[in-house]
Write a structure and sequence with these properties.
Length: 168
């Protein structure tokens, strides 16, 4: 019996270490995939089956993830009207509303979770102030040079699917 333990115990420990190392390697792989600059391709919001393109049919923006865990995310409508006064502090109510509703810009830190294919973002700053200081989880998936970023509870209601393409 003692001989079995002498053989089995190192095998079990080695197996546990391999599983742990494989799990860490998989998480590292996802973390490596997300690093870089991603251009926004589309943003589709699904609110109880009602699908809309929140930032229009051709949104612009970048999601930038660095190796140290910092992130900057920006999406905007390309058709936001210019402020007639040419002074951002004197825009009309309609002009200001178009800007606020046509842009989302955030920055903070992120962590990747390989097990559930997600990224958790801690928002340090946001053009939507209700997100500042919050931690939010997003599902992520990769297909070739595309990433899908899913927000399960957008500030406008519903679920948002952002399709991104690695910037070149």
């Amino acid at each position: 019996m003692n001989a079995i333990y002498k053989v089995m115990l190192p095998t079990l420990i080695s197996s546990a270490m391999l599983v742990s190392a494989a799990s860490n390697a998989a998480a590292e792989m996802l973390k490596q995939k997300i690093v870089g600059t991603w251009a926004v391709v589309s943003v589709v919001n699904d609110n109880n089956g009602n699908k809309t393109e929140t930032f229009g049919p051709h949104p612009i923006g970048y999601f930038i993830f660095d190796r140290t865990g910092h992130v900057a995310l920006q999406i905007m409508r390309p058709d936001i009207p210019k402020v007639a006064s040419n002074n951002k502090n004197t825009g009309t109510d309609a002009e200001n509303k178009a800007v606020v509703q046509g842009i989302i810009a955030n920055f903070g830190t992120y962590k990747v979770d390989e097990k559930d294919h997600s990224a958790s973002v801690h928002y340090i700053g946001s053009s939507y102030p209700n997100w500042v200081g919050t931690d939010q989880k997003r599902s992520i998936a990769f297909t070739g040079d595309q990433m899908t970023w899913i927000d399960p509870a957008t500030p406008t209601g519903g679920t948002s699917v952002v399709t991104l393409k690695r910037a070149k």
